[in-house]
Amino acid sequence: MAVYSISDLEKLTGIKAATLRAWEQRYQIVTPKRTATNIRYYLDEDLRELLNVALLNKNGMRISQIAKLRAEERAEKVVAISSINVSSDTQLDALTLSAVEMDEFKFSHVIDTNIRQRGFEETMLEVIYPFLDKLGVLYFTGSITPVQEGFIGNLIRRKLLAATDRLPQPQGKDIPVFGLYLPEGERQELSLLFIEYLLRKRGFLTRYLGGDVAVSDLVDATSRTHIDYLFTILSNAFVHEPVENHVASVLEGCPNLTLLLTGYQASIHSFEGEERVKVIGGLEDMIRFVATLK
Fold first, then answer.
1. Is the pTM above the cut of 0.70?
2. Yes or no: is domain 177-293 CATH 3.40.50.280?
């Protein structure tokens, strides 16, 4: 069972600590536990209740009205609001609640509703990526656990694989082929899977090579199948070897392709004069680049 401080609740719900204290005193929405030194702390059920309360309050319901509802009634209203309200704050609150509760149904309900209304690509860009940013902050501040983060990551991974699998097989002659990989120690799998989806949706062939791929494996792969562009992500977590060494090894071992790099480590290194290296600034830059290939 997780234990939360009032600062954790402030980060997770978006409600100021002073407001939370006032709600406790005036409406008894939750009753915090106290340590031996009289410091407030909260349990999972307190967090779930406050997330529901915060979502309802942000969507126009007065706190005095919310306080009169039973917990079950609050949860029902949250589901109803999440179904019809596509504001960014409501989406983030509902997805945060699904992560805290590890509720697959609630998460899929919000995401699938967005996919039907927006399409998969826009849902990833406008809903899932902002949610992942918030989730990352909550993880690094200790407000959610690695298990909760892993649970949500796996659900998103499944959505990405299913959406990619539904795309038609690219047809035509001389279609550029993209190989996608993550070097050893890099952990940006969801972003790599989304890049594959974007490429397949735009009619390009892809070869997904996976994560923790050594240069020797890239050499082996490119000797077995034709690849025009090799794409990878080098974030600030890439510390396996100097970036320049990795790039030089890939270019030497794979002489007939262009290497596409994105991520923090790629952005802070200069590859001027290297014709077979292109640094991609982010998702929008990648979309613009592949549009030139069409």
1. yes
2. yes
